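> @MW can you paste both from yesterday?
MW: sure, first one:
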Amino acid sequence: MIKDNITYTELLEDESTNEVSAQDMYTAMQENSNKKYFSTQKWIFGILGFIIFPQMLIWMNIDFFTFPALFCWIGLFIFYRKGKMAQRTNVEFDIDSNVEKRMNAVKEAFDFVNNADEVFPSAGLWSIIFLDTNVDIYGWEDPTDNDEIFFMPDVCLVNVKQSGFSAIEYEKMNSGYTDSKDTAHSPPSDCEILGKTWLHTRKDGQPDLRYTDNPTVYSIKKGFTLISDHPHFKEGQDSNFSAGLIISSPSIAKDFNSKMKNIFSSGGISTSKQKKSVKPKEKPDS
């Protein structure tokens, strides 16, 4: 993806470099979450605590080695926790009035869509692993293909099939609606009923009375709101992300689509800046 031109202030190890793009910032965040901190210490405490000292305790039958083993277990746990904390990134956004309006609109849209009886996949208030921030993040994860989208103050942050984060400007995103037809034995109360039949039918379409267990099957219509960075919602080299929500109520899905369109159409805001990210005081070993 072509990197956007929005710049952010960040406290970097190289003090001469104090600006990064949104793409660079979120990429660095993900790379940091995958780093293995304190590996040397964890290996030392692990080998001593689970192999050497227990073996010496067995061979020499001296209770003294219980205490060093216990000490190593505690040390391993401490460095494990320190490593997890080092993998986290703390980002504080300076929110101006325009970005605040956008985030309020995002919250309103997701609060609204969750008035539907069913939303698949689940969408709403979300959290990004290893990221701490001063704003509420909304979005969803599609469990069928592991696609993720998060509505950040600055960009839409997408992760296609867990391949890595891409930062897409709001004004480059698109929203669309289409009907989603389905069948159900117990349809959601807010879907549109198109017709009904039975699991077993006669040639004339009436229920086959030979079957005592012959439930009604309803033809129903739900709504499908699709989000993509391609104007025609095509997947391929020209797009980074396409994913949607199946919403039981077609009317709610249509209104949610309208809300998303409004958010994207007014998304050309480039004044939001990030405060300096908080780094661990101690420099961890890789």
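MW: second:
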Amino acid sequence: MSKLGSVIRFTFWSQARTRGFIIGTVFFCLLITIGIHLPLIIQAFNFGGTDKIAVLPSSSQLPAALHAFYTEQEEAEIEIILLDDQGSFEANEALAKEMLFSGEIDGYLIIPGDEQTIAAEAQFKSKDAGSSVQNKLQTALQFLRTSMVAAQFQLSGEELAELNRTFIVESIHIMENDAGKSEQEIAMTIVFVFVMLSMLFGSIFGGGAMVATEVSSEKSSRVMEILITSVKPMVQMFGKVIGVFLIGFVQILIYAAVAIINLMLPYNREAFANFNLDLSALSISMLLYFILFYLIGYFAYAVLFAAAGSIVSRTEDVNQVISPIMVLSLLTFYVAIFSVSNAGALYVEILSFVPLFTPVLMFLRIGLSDPAIWEIVLAVAVNIGFIVVTGWLAAKIYRAGVLMYGKRPALKEVWKAMRYY
């Protein structure tokens, strides 16, 4: 255990003291802080402003009503400009286009109809495709048209309010062993799934490559000849894996602390409510499952990277060797992304027992589906077995490969060396 601790400490401090680690950690902390405060920054600088929308002359009652609707608002997001009649529709639109391209307005609205009929459609033209102003105008016009139709049929205010009352369907995820999960709990689970994906793949792309590079760099300096005689291959390999894990774990703790401090500020709490997210809706069991499957996922990939790094002689060859593992991790990522909306699918159930897929997909099933306890236990057991067996094979590859210098050994040579050791 003392030798394992020595390898872990050496690996950890050799990376944690580097300038790249410190600068990178500070940089991402600043990015997290800026990202969380981005809505507040946008609001402070008032990038959006008030959108000026011109309305072409029409005999319909809606243009005047729309103008009055936004004029009565204290901080209206839209300013309605009623254009004077130029004698023809073509002349009116030509004037609107001239104002649009000169920057006087942000768009113009064409509302057909006459005094007897209430228009049910309109055209909004602007230079911005998919403008959000269109949705705001549509909502306002729908409200005004409904009010006009209600007045036409002499409906009272109570009758109009009842007519516009929204029908709400609350979604409850029914589970066999409890009362089910609310929308907030499901939302928090989805957030946790994406957090796990981000953490796991950050560890894979950063920590995995670091493990492989650590091994290959020592090989290239021939210091491995001394290390391999003083420390067992299994101890040395897992010492490096755990050391790199602790580096990533410390970074995650720092990022989490920065995010929590920023999110707990009073003006940032409303952001969670706007997205229907409530941290109190997250159960302790989900947090424990999150930690368990993250650890399983990290070590399952880490032993593969360690084995891959031990069969190359130069650090320049590391990227080529670890490419298949990267592709496999990307496959896991995309399967998880497309399975969020269909966690109960048969392929998700099958892949949730397959090592390397289990950490994300079984966690996804626990949060959004209803797997039996024996399924969770079996998946964890299979993955622990995979880590042990793969770690044992990786240690043999490690010991066989670390003493091979020169060009990268062929698989046949590695297999012979593994059988010898």
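> thanks! Residues 267 and 409 are 59 Å apart (CA to CA).
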